[in-house]
Amino acid sequence: MHLKIWNQAPLVRLILPFLTGIIVAVCLPVQFKYVLQFIFVLVLILSAIIIFPKLNISYKNSWWFGLLINSTLFCSSYQLTISKTEKLAADHFSKFTDNTTFVYAKLTEPYHEKTNSLKVVMQIIAVKQNNEWKHSSGKAMVYLKKDTKALQLKYGDELILKANFKEIPPAQNPGEFDYKSFLAFHNIFHQAYLKSNDWTYSGDNSGNPIIKCCISLRNNLLNTFRANHLQGEEFAVGAALLLGYVDQLDADIISSYANTGALHILSVSGLHVAIIYVVFNWLLFFFDKIKYGNIIKAILLILFLWFYAALTGLSPSVLRAAAMFSFIVIAKSFNRHTNIYNTLAASAFLLLTINPYLIMDVGFQLSYIAVLGIVYIYPKIYNWFEIHNSILNQIWAVTVVSIAAQIATFPLGLYYFHQFPNYFLLTNFIVIPVSTLIIYTGIALLALAKVSIAVIYLAQGFSYAVWFLNESVRTIEKWPYSLAQGISITLMETCLIYTLIILLFYYFSKRKSHYLMYALSIAVIILCMQIKEQSQQYQQKKLVIYNIPKTYAIDFISSKRNVLLTDSILAKNESSLLYHIKHYWWNLGLNETKIISENIQTKNLNIRNNFILFFNTRILIVSDLTILKKALATSLKPLILDYIIISKNPILHIQDVLKTAQTNKIIFDSSNSDYNISKWKNECALLKQSYYSVKDEGALVVDL
């Protein structure tokens, strides 16, 4: 950004130390003594310098004054984040350690319906100790058995639970999505599974009246869709696009939108809020003609924007958009010019002050970076061509918006999702105008729901538009080379790519050669990092036993090739492979994979009848007693093995296994029951035999 932006947008400068303090607190959450007193002293010094000019302290353009402000913001945001970290509170329910089983809790949101259970976040209000209820704090993820009783629960309902809360386990496989960290950024650290007789409704509901009103209204609007015969994918996508209701979206449709670069359409964001702003700004035009009408109009617009944000679930992207438009509305009502960078920074200040952990939300990051990209990059690319035809100019404008947003977000997309939609331009050229039409049609449909003649045609139009949107996305997804997948970059490489992009735009804007030299230097560093990574990948040799519920999965990795030994069910389950394993493959740069359920022989791997030789590592898979008997029959002496993997719940004793083979380690894979694993672990302990339980300790990765 040019230097003038720093001068015109002072909040951009101020937010940098504020963000830094939050990130440090998230990574290093330490409670320091007297930190509040230290912040108070800093604020007192700043106030004295600014308010009392008679002190004759020259602070303008002084480095020490800037350092003082930055230090104050850094310390304040650090302490703010610590204070918002609920598990550090003295009354957090996890601090009550003596066999607490009864808790008093309330639903903080509507439940999410799954196949066999209801998933809901609950606020723990009190715990029962020594027949006495004690006030507590903290949230937990609770899974209720799905039945008629549970389906009647609503937001704000207060329950008495008989629960055994357990810490949410970390990712069980390398490269797997870290659900524990994801929930921790939402201040959720524990979970419990409850049957119908483990909880009782207290009869009280203490939900926020405004949130209850929004939920009730959204349910009524969803019923309006159903009453007009919207169903299936048309209902699911239409409800997600207009109302932020995503419970009916299935994995296939989400995958199609993600693979084509259109997933942002299914998340209520700036496009949706902008349309709501345009609609209500037009409906309230008459306030422009009366005294103080601009103030009244601004208040009403802000109320409508935030009501819509609450109606759609208060996602990070809609929070950002609602906050930004609120500042724009306020400035417009006072006839003040707004700097878009200042507005962005102000909205971030507001949201992060309320919830500092929003900074760790991927949607929040992508939302702000996309807007920054559009604001900064769009005018530079748009001015490349001067188009006089209005239709072609609109097409060019939509194209440039898509390019600008993609340039800004693709490094983060590669880092988090390891993929890039190659036809994103065509996809957005279709989905942006169609989704805009859907939103306008949906608003009209809901507004005119009681007008029977109009609503029939609106419902048909809405349904056809959503159908066309879905089919367009699916068609593009099926095209060859529609998705570049398996791209893995590190956090450092992500930061370097952003630095490279910024330097290149500086060069093209200012035409100064030293920016190009800096950019080329960064490119060389990225290239060197990639060469080093490729070299390490070509030399890698690994044995991996994954932790995948109720099945086995053993990976033999050599250079950039691998063979996965698993059952036929997992081999065909693409979503399970993607969730548990494929991200690790991409991190390792594997490009030639075989998935097998039977014998195989390659240059470095020989699998035959449960006996495995991988390079010089000898492995035996024991899934029943007949394998041990065959081993005894073919050898007079116990086999010498590196690993024995016990799989599929065989009925055996460890001492019988050791009569057949001597091994460095016995491994219990995730296909075994908890009861059998516990029994075998006790037997190993008595025999002083080294063991590893994949189900208890996560995937085992052995570098050979």
Mean pLDDT: 87
Helix content: 40-55%
- CATH topology description of the domain at 541-703: Metallo-beta-lactamase, Chain A
Give the biggest sheet. Answer: 9 strands, mixed
How many helices? The count is 25
* Poorly predicted spans: none
CATH class division of the domain at 541-703:
Alpha Beta
**Secondary structure category:** alpha+beta
End-to-end separation: 49 Å
Give the overall silhouette.
globular
CATH superfamily of the domain at 541-703: Ribonuclease Z/Hydroxyacylglutathione hydrolase-like
* Radius of gyration over C-alpha positions, nearest whole angstrom: 30 Å
The second-level CATH architecture of the domain at 541-703 is 4-Layer Sandwich
Beta-strand share of residues? 15-25%
Please tally the β strands and state the result.
23
How does this structure look, described?
With 704 residues, the chain is α+β, with helices and mostly antiparallel strands. Among the domains are: 3-83, no CATH class; 93-207, Beta Barrel (OB fold (Dihydrolipoamide Acetyltransferase, E2P)), CATH 2.40.50; 491-539; 541-703, Metallo-beta-lactamase, Chain A. The chain contains 25 helices and 23 strands. The strands form 4 sheets. Strands 1, 2, 3, 4, 5, 6, 7, 8 and 9 form a 9-stranded mixed sheet that branches. Strands 16-17-18-19-20-21-22 form a 7-stranded mixed sheet. A 5-stranded mixed sheet has the order 15-14-13-12-23. A hairpin with a 2-residue loop joins strand 3 (117-129) and strand 4. The mean pLDDT is 87.
Task: Sum this structure up briefly.
By secondary structure, the protein is α+β, with helices and mostly antiparallel strands. The chain has 25 helices and 23 strands. Among the domains are: 81 residues, no CATH class; 115 residues, OB fold (Dihydrolipoamide Acetyltransferase, E2P), CATH 2.40.50.730; 49 residues; 163 residues, 4-Layer Sandwich (Metallo-beta-lactamase, Chain A).
